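This entry is retained here.
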Amino acid sequence: MALDATARRRVVGALLVALALAMLIAGQTVLSGRLNPWGFMLYWLVCLVLTGGAMVTAFRDLRAIQQTNLREQRRLFHATLEQIAKEARTKAPPQDRAGTGQFEREAEK
């Protein structure tokens, strides 16, 4: 089962958050007071790196969503303009209320 880029980013982000959360819980409960100073620093540094990685992944996902949204808005805008132009080409020229074609005669002058 191959995942597209969006699904990969979200899976990686979820894993990073889950690992950081597990480390946070373990660090506050099981490992509290059991680590030497260097182990303590290394442990929380790894937790910080995992959290930072999750944040970077989230921002990359946000940027990808914004780019996709922008492309879709542009596509919709151009499709709407094309539809308006198509309708304008197929529409008959305007006539006055009496149907005498006065607008056409004035345009010819």
Notes: Residues 73 and 79 are 10 Å apart (CA to CA). Residues 5-89 form one domain. The longest helix spans residues 37-90. The mean pLDDT is 89.
